[in-house]
Amino acid sequence: MVTTEGTGSGTRGNAGPEAAQPPVEPSHAAAAPAPAKPLPLPLRVYRWTRATAHVLEGVAMTTLLFPLVGAQRRRALSALWSRRLLRILRIEARVHGQGAAGVGGNVLIVANHISWLDIFVLTAVQPARFIAKSELRRWPLIGRFAESGGTLFIDRTRRHDTHKVNRHAAEVLARGDVIAIFPEGTTTDGRDVLPFHGSLLQPIVDAEGHVQPVAIRYVHHEGGINDAVAYVGDISFLSSFWRVTGERRVVVELHMTEPLPARERHRRELSREAEAAIRRALALPARGTEPGTPGGPPA
Fold it and tell me: What range does the domain containing 206 cover?
């Protein structure tokens, strides 16, 4: 389920600009009620089975149907499939702000990274091709789905591979497509944002498009950060998948901040601005100003 919040009728296109909204207080700032107990085992197994079947349908769709239809139809099908997955898992996406809705294509979405669910949450709201670490290709089912959907895989240990993917991404963006990246390079528990790596922002500079920062936070329906969704530590994908199916209901908040023009900008400067915008949207202190940290340069 995807809902939007803002001024106007409540549709994303009528939402007020993000800059006009007050800073969002973190959902974990105040004491939150205890989260609901996990689903009973029979219901959890039923949800796991439905979600697995849906993923298999997605693999079949991207493998058999995608080669026969155009890019616009593929994006529409990907968004529909992702929204259905969120419904199966009882995940409600709440979108704040308009972001780059009026910009069109040639947009690089830059988001903080918490879970493998981030890919499908973003796709449900704004279909995009992703740039992901090569390890994703080996994930059960999800890797095949991502590859068939046009994900660009990158081995960050090989400099030549990075340059090759960046060139391809710049060409795709210049043709009016949308690409999404997670410049932290890894996942977190959602309570902080790691420093952004600027190397993958070079394609949008070359394509002279826009960067769309998106702040992501998963919370319990009752309030408070939802740790069950975070894909961190040594947990396997299958274990994470099982844990997510045990949540009665999850809310994911997406804050679409003002797009940043990339023309004639340096990728590191853009990276710092995008990170700062996401930290502000999540009501986190600017980097270098955390409590107990000596003053530093603004993010």
Answer: 2-11+38-281
